[in-house]
Design brief:
Length: about 500
């Protein structure tokens, strides 16, 4: 599915990443999603001014109001705690602009629903992310009448996860994790091939049976969590060069490795998850080496054994990562502390108490929509968003022309587009603390007037409009020489 399919069919429900908000300053057809629709093309769907399908020659287009077409009415945001720091700040500016655009197009006020398993001080995040009054935020579900109970959840009597703290002595962190992994893998395999026994375990499962194999299969995949990619690479090399040969020397199978990191290709991730969600063959042992990429949206029932390579820096990260195991079956989490870090030593000393108050120790999300240099990066994109989504669709002229530099220059010279006409909407989007919006908009208008030798308005703006909300830092062009020996920055 391409974006154009969305603009011409206008589905009732849209699912995507938060980065798509950057499209506001790039694609003028997005205005149709906000309710700017003039009719239907009999072949290609909804349109504004002209058919959204390039090269369409269908006539006549069917003009007229379309019943039920409005802008978005509900925004559902998953994993709210991930919208923090640079990403959260950039997103906050686009979020409040989208709300202002919705209001000015005559649509009902946008309702916001956000979900998160680990969040603290949510009122402040609501204020900074969505520009809403902190008092408007509500937590659902609320607390129940008794401790550990609510109308929607209860406390079970059996553990869902068992946490084990390990502080190595006279060993490096990496060697400790690998030795623990080797011991666990060997024990799991030996249990899996145990001979038939007349003794029935408390689970009611008898060794040597198919039920026994099915039970142990749930614990034959080890998930190893790393705080840094370089540590993962080092462990991967040692598993292949040392751990697997050690197991094979003992007559045990080698470990099959899978990587789940931000650098893993999508097809590799899909293949790995398909394999991991399929019951294994007796004797097969898997190890999944992962970074924080695995902390969200990776739900595999066969993740029931986890090893932490050091204690995560934030409690929220620790909760999210460790919740990958024990989703349906009891899981075990080995937290191997860094022996030379005082913070890890403290976590080990108070391991029991830390987990007793784990939910209360979640840190507030770091976000500040008023960060000093944030507006420098977002205002060009939101200036273009107002131009393409609102100004271009408020008159009778071809909205496609508003992305062309010469056309907009003409509008500026005529006084139809000025800093005075463009500033109010952006001031409302940024909020009362952004009192220098008119000055910034005036600079952008001057850049348009003074630009030459280019054809698009977006190319005249400095810095250019964001194409992704993750463009936190300016990019630097680099090149590798023919001998692949030296790097040089070019800018």
């Amino acid at each position: 599915i391409t974006d154009n399919e969305i603009y011409r069919y206008l589905p009732t429900v849209l699912v995507g990443t938060i980065d798509k908000l950057a499209t506001l300053g790039i694609q003028r057809k997005l205005a149709q999603v906000f309710g700017r629709v003039q009719g239907r093309c009999p072949v290609h769907g909804y349109y504004f001014f002209r058919c959204t399908q390039r090269g369409c020659t269908v006539t006549p287009l069917v003009p007229g109001g379309v019943a039920g077409i409005t802008g978005p009415s509900i925004l559902v945001q998953d994993e709210l705690h991930l919208l923090r720091e640079g990403l959260g700040t950039f997103d906050s500016h686009y979020e409040t602009f989208a709300q202002e655009l919705t209001r000015r197009m005559g649509n009902p006020e946008l309702k916001l629903i956000a979900s998160s398993a680990t969040i603290e001080a949510f009122q402040r995040q609501v204020e900074h992310l969505y520009g809403r009054d902190p008092g408007e935020g509500r937590v659902f579900p609320g607390a129940g009448p008794k401790l550990g109970e609510s109308f929607y959840a209860g406390t079970i009597e059996v553990p869902q996860r068992i946490y084990v703290g390990v502080l190595p002595h006279n060993k490096t962190l990496l060697n400790s994790v690998l030795e623990l992994l080797e011991s666990y893998t060997a024990a799991a395999h030996q249990l899996r091939v145990a001979p038939t026994s007349p003794v029935t375990l408390p689970t009611g499962v008898v060794p040597g049976t198919a039920a026994w194999d099915g039970l142990l299969d749930l614990y034959c995949t080890s998930l190893i969590y790393f705080l840094a990619k370089r540590d993962l690479d080092a462990a991967s090399n040692d598993i292949g060069a040392d751990l697997s040969p050690n197991l094979q020397a003992r007559g045990l199978p080698a470990v099959t490795q899978f990587h789940l990191t931000s650098e893993t290709r999508t097809d590799e991730v899909e293949a790995a998850l398909d394999h991991l969600q399929t019951p294994g063959v007796v004797g097969e042992m898997d190890a999944v080496l992962a970074t924080n990429m695995v902390s969200h949206g990776v739900d595999v029932d066969r993740f029931n054994a986890m090893f932490f390579h050091g204690m995560p820096r934030q409690t929220s990260e620790y909760i999210q990562a460790s919740s990958r195991v024990g989703r349906r079956h009891c899981g075990v989490v080995f937290v191997v502390m860094h022996p030379a870090r005082e913070r890890d030593q403290s976590h080990y000393e108070y391991f029991g108490k830390y987990h007793e108050f784990l939910g209360q120790l979640v840190e507030p999300v770091a976000i500040n929509r008023h960060a000093t240099f944030a507006m420098d990066r977002t205002i060009p994109g939101l200036f273009m968003a107002e131009l393409l989504q609102f100004v271009a669709t408020s008159g009778t002229e071809n909205p496609g022309k508003f992305s062309q530099l010469d056309f907009v220059k003409t509008k500026v010279s005529m006084g139809a587009i000025t800093a005075g006409t463009m500033s109010p909407m952006l001031e409302a989007a940024y909020g009362p603390k952004a009192n220098d919006v008119p000055i910034r908009v005036s600079r952008l208008v001057d850049q348009i007037v003074q630009a030459a030798g280019i054809s698009m308005v977006s190319d005249a703006l400095i810095p250019p409009p964001l194409r992704s909300l993750r463009e936190v830092d300016e990019s630097v062009d680099i090149e590798l020489d023919s001998d692949a020996t030296t790097w040089s920055s070019r800018g």
